[in-house]
Records
---
Amino acid sequence: MTPHSAGNDRDRCPVGKDLEFDPLQPETFDSSHEVYERFRSECPVAHSEQFGGFWALFKYQDVVDMASDHTTFTTTVQNVVPKISFTGRRPPLHFDPPEHKYYRRPLGGPLRSAQTSKLEGDMRSYARDLIAELRGKNSFDFATDFALPFAAHGFSRLLSLPDELVLRVRKLSVAYNFEVQAMNHVEVRRLSLELYDVAREIVEGRKAEPLDSNADMVSGLLAACEAEVDPITEEMVVASIRQMLVAAMAAPHAVMSSAAVHLARDAQLHKRLREHTELIPAAVEEFLRLYSPYRVFSRTPVEDVVIGGREITEGEPIAMIFPSANRDADVFDDPHEFKLDRMPNQHIAFGVGVHTCPAAFFARMELRIAIEELVRGIEEFSLAGEVEMMNWLEFGPVSVPVRSTTRESA
Ligand code: HEM
């Protein structure tokens, strides 16, 4: 990417046709990928008039280059498209280095593999109980009956919170995401403030009863605030937890549900994973690549730039379309195929650069447990109705109706 001084050149796509991108097109489970393929080959840096106007990057290398360059592309203006925030910046996502590291550092201890691995036993037994309930039924909805409660339970263990509170938070954040997409300012503000209230309650509770700051993210942030080595304020601790409330459950919920759709359509793969559970970590990477659950994060250039031959003016929002980048044929052979032997699998579902997901180890463990228990407990299942998709911000189903042929005794 190079700086430029000329005027805006958005009317000419140097690669092919000029295509206007519409993020609000209704979608099925597969349709977005057809759209993204067309943009990758015909207009890989596209403009959209939606949400007040923004640019969208569809190619892997463009996304990697932008996410790696936090000097030219800031997250302090907005981190998603559309920008619709009234309640201030939330660390660590909405901060650039060096401030970013003040908030990121205290998350490192509680999210390291040695720490989060301790949750595996509890999460597995919870998954087993959920699957045991589903085994007795001929039909169920994988997204609402398994993925949602399991993702909520995982987060409740990670933050030492009651499951009921976390389920309420997930409902709030789904409603919040839909209102953001609809750009309904009044509702976005109301829901955001409600999420802030929950975050404040959690922080107050932890101040009253602190946990080990190496094991608990809230206590870690509070300890950093008290140590006064870095300029962290208590209000920013609340804002960090507020950010996590929305970030932590959406992606596992979405990608687990997508994996279930994939397995429902591919009985051979289901059987293979059931017989060879050692293949499940590789399967998790392919599910993350094929169905990258965070569809979009954005950056704002602090100077005029040229990306893929298109001139973009300082201050114009640019969206990175992760599910598109992860199916780019320039990087992945047979990009739409599920390949257990894809080596190396360089998908970027967890992001790139300073904002790379700090919870990637935990999320991978969570997905591995979910798939292991699903294929172990439910011998066979197929789709029993329409897969209903979430929205522009999250790629994945909110409803996966399935029919199971697993007998109680199997
Ligand atoms: C399948 C699961 C997950 C996926 C695919 C995922 C993906 C991502 C991505 C792509 C980013 C980078 C955003 C950007 O560059 O703008 C990110 C950041 C982040 N994620 Fe995750 N995430 C997952 C689960 C989680 C969980 C369970 C947590 C809970 C702790 C979490 C907490 C965060 C935080 C705090 C950030 C901001 C990091 C920073 O700004 O330095 N994520 N995640």
Note: The chain is about 50% helix and 10% strand.
---
Amino acid sequence: MEGDVLVIGGGAAGMETASRISDFNRNVILIEKEQELGGHILKWDRLFPDGIPASDVTKNLKESLGSTKVLLGCYITSIEKREDSNFFAQLNSGETIKCSSVIFATGFKLFPAQKKQEYGYGLYERVITNADLETRFKKGEGLGKDAPKRIGFVHCVGSRDEKICNNQCSKLCCITAVKQAIELKQLYPFAEIFCFYMDLRMYGRGYEDLYLEAQSKYEIRFIRGRVSEISQEQSGLVIVKAEDTLASRPLKITLDWVVLMAGIISERENDYLSQQLSLQLGEDGFIDSVDPIQKTNQTNIAGVFVTGSASGPKTLPEVINEARSTALSVNEYLNKIKNG
Ligand code: SF4
């Protein structure tokens, strides 16, 4: 099979990049390892800050794919760049794709919360993650039949944490916690909701307003302090121990449910492809750009581009905008190699 461009990854970044390159009448092949396009948004119910249904975004992205050839359930087993500057990718299906350019739209993964053993994820039924909560929202399950009285959110799980060698901020989880806390308060108006945070990072337009609304309208309480341990009572309720760093005192609180805000980490599944292409990765495993200001989507290998969260945590609007700029860069590159 032959194409101008091979896009690896069928999430928001991959779909938007593929559709924009198709607009230039390029031959685009998009491969996705799952049986459905959408990536992480598929698991999400509503998106911050306005609560837009995530399924609307996925639907729009799918509908704009134009002439893109989509291969589902496909992944690359090996890839090489030959002397004629073409790339040859071998797929798990046995097919080979020849193309002039490759785009890594391989996304991210959520930190596996069970690695923070002190939080009891996977052990205690009432300790769940941000992604689990979205799945519950999507299924219309909420937190079960009995209305919870007290719910806690723990920020920075797997982010900004020297113990697990990840110092970076995941950028999205503070605002996600605020959005989810408000949604729970709307479902359970009599519940007390607590957010345990280190710093609150509400940098996007409208985020600070949502945070203020969470306090003033929904009476969600924000407690500055890192949670040291979560344990379970015989009744199934969970006990959170933390240090309230503003009041300078230890804190112990019994809750019905705890939601862990699992952070964003690099998708290491594609490291073997990076190695085969000698693609430069950062220590955190995200793909490095050649120039982090003006060429954010270009890698150290000519013809290989990166887009979306494969180069670091990004919000969905940032992903979409970067996908569009990547399409322009790839088109320029293809014109350049055609004209010698
Ligand atoms: S966005 Fe907030 S919760 Fe997420 S890592 Fe950064 S500070 Fe922590």
Note: The helical segments are 12-22, 54-63, 130-139, 173-187, 207-216, 271-277, 316-338.
---
Amino acid sequence: MLGTDELAREKSAGLRAAGAAVRELPTFEEGSLAGARLVFDATGDEEVNRRVWEEAERLDILVNVVDRPERCRFIMPAVVNREPLLVAISTSGESPFLASALRARLERMLGAEWGPFVARVGAIRRALRAEGVPLAAQTAVYRRLLRSGVRLLLREGRQSEADYEAAAIAASAGRPQPGRVALVGAGPGDPDLLTLGAQERLFDADVVFHDALVSAAVLALAGPQAELVDVGKRAGGRSTEQTAINQAMIEAARAGHEVVRLKGGDPFVFGRGGEEMAALLDAGIEVIVVPGVSSALAAPAAAGIPLTMRGVASSFAVATAHAADEEGPRLERLAEAADTLILLMPLATLRETAARLARVVGLQRPAALVSGATTRQQAVIRAPLGGLANAVLKSPLEGPAVLVVGEVVDALPVAASLAAAAADA
Ligand SMILES: C[S@@+](CC[C@H](N)C(=O)[O-])C[C@H]1O[C@@H](n2cnc3c(N)ncnc32)[C@H](O)[C@@H]1O
């Protein structure tokens, strides 16, 4: 190791930790490199760099001159060390800063539990191989381990429970296992609003049954092994019968697949998640639920409209404009009871809905339609209830929309500028 600065000290420490015998040389002299296997030159001195390079080349020693990619025969990647798991990151010398920024991110993603987890999977692998378990059955075990609660147990320091669960999975090698269904909320559109749990389920899924509204960017998170099935319903478009969807999920789970049912927003908010869960449980299928960010909350927020605000509104209600009449004048009662009213699927009956609400809260009550919330197509139309339907006639909205009614619509000056920016987009 040539050089004495912090970088040199850091690299020396890393090399020693990896088992290398490190010789530190404050300066370079002809012949200094004799006997070395690797040379790392962190002197930053151009003349020294040149001489080190020439001697290393002559003696056939691998050399790395800091910040001189043309004088490097090997790279020093940034390393995420979760022994026995090692992840090396290199930007091919383009940006050591980015390499270490990426390492910091990956370190947060790959928690300390990954070390003992990989070690356990390794031990199981050796055992399965020794028993002559066929490769396909081994792979099924590794997949189940990855999807199991073993990592979480290790993260929480519950070693013996982790060992117990891992051993049970290993013991099941070669026996067909039932799959399960995860009802997963995909959020309102922006992939950034997907939860970490939703991402995990997508990474691991064998089959993803998804709504039409789920964006391509979100679907792209599904692993290469995943089959994507569009079972979406859009106004006027193709739709798959609910019973057919339920049946397809039941069959996929019974075939041992890890099934994801991916729904826009939250699966239990006007998404038929409840009905699907009931059908799955009825069929004896294991179901897990991963809540999502509902458009009912995300659309107003993305338009800069707070649902509650001290002195303005302290309650809100969420309903759909469609089913409003099933049990009498529910909409009117909700509009009376809650300071802020949020209606999903409001466009088809907008004029009639606005008129009904206006009879209770007045024609001047502020209202806003937020469509395509959190996507590039986000648009916001604001008008008092009495003028809303005409405003939408003038600039029709594409895509799904949420109606917000209440004083909160005009509560923030920033809301107006956000809305204008979105409408211009
Ligand atoms: C069948 S419901 C499903 C709601 C979903 N489960 C949720 O929690 O957002 C579909 C309605 O959600 C609303 N919606 C979904 N995504 C939206 C978005 N990005 N912007 C505005 N509204 C949205 C619209 O009212 C749409 O008609």
Note: Residues 419-425 have pLDDT under 50 and may be disordered.
